[in-house]
Amino acid sequence: MIGKAKRKTQNAKLNDRFSSGFTLIEIMVAVLLIGLMSGGGIAAYRRLNERSSVEGAARQVEQALREAQKRAASGVKPSGCTGDLLTYIMTMGGSVVGENKYTIQADCFTSDPYPVTYKLPEGTKFPAQTSISFRALSKGSSGGSVSVQNDTGSFVYEIRVSEGGAITTLRSP
């Protein structure tokens, strides 16, 4: 009898050694946790990508405003501009609200050259049409602000131009 009990104990130890794998429920929980973590990572990456796209578009608009300001301040007249240069006008938003185009045009005394049109990156837009003008020979600007946002409006950058010509960019929370 003692030999039989000893064999049962040894067999139980061997069975425990070979049956130490994972159950189906443990594997399903692990897969579920991995799926939840990767789903959250993908969502965070998408939001980061949208934010950087809007930030890049805002920098592009700010740079275009500074270029229009520089041309007006130096009195650079583009070809097709006859008479005195009055202002450089930057119009954001195109002719339709929510459009992602902007134009820069010189305003001359006699005739105006054709405007030059630019486009924001895909997925960004101007929520409203806005125009800002810079007077020739460093005589300031019309002042105002323009917003750049993503298509859903969750990321917004505002660019302000003072009447003295100072340009600042603010990110809305």
Characteristic key phrases:
four-stranded antiparallel β-sheet; minor pseudopilin epsh fold; alpha+beta; 173 residues
Written account of the structure:
The mean pLDDT is 86. The chain has a 4-stranded antiparallel sheet, with helices on one face. A 4-stranded antiparallel sheet has the order 4-6-7-8, covered by helices on one side. Helices cover 39% and strands 27% of the residues. It has one domain (49-171): minor pseudopilin epsh fold (3-Layer(bab) Sandwich). The protein has 173 residues and is α+β, with helices and mostly antiparallel strands. The chain has helices spanning 2-18, 24-74, and strands spanning 85-92, 101-108, 116-119, 124-125, 130-135, 144-150, 156-161, 167-171. It is built from 2 helices and 8 strands, in the order ααββββββββ. A hairpin with a 5-residue loop joins β7 (156-161) and β8 (167-171). It is rod-shaped and about 115 Å long.
Quick structural summary:
The chain has 173 residues and is α+β, with helices and mostly antiparallel strands. The chain has a single domain, classed as minor pseudopilin epsh domain (minor pseudopilin epsh fold), CATH 3.55.40.10.
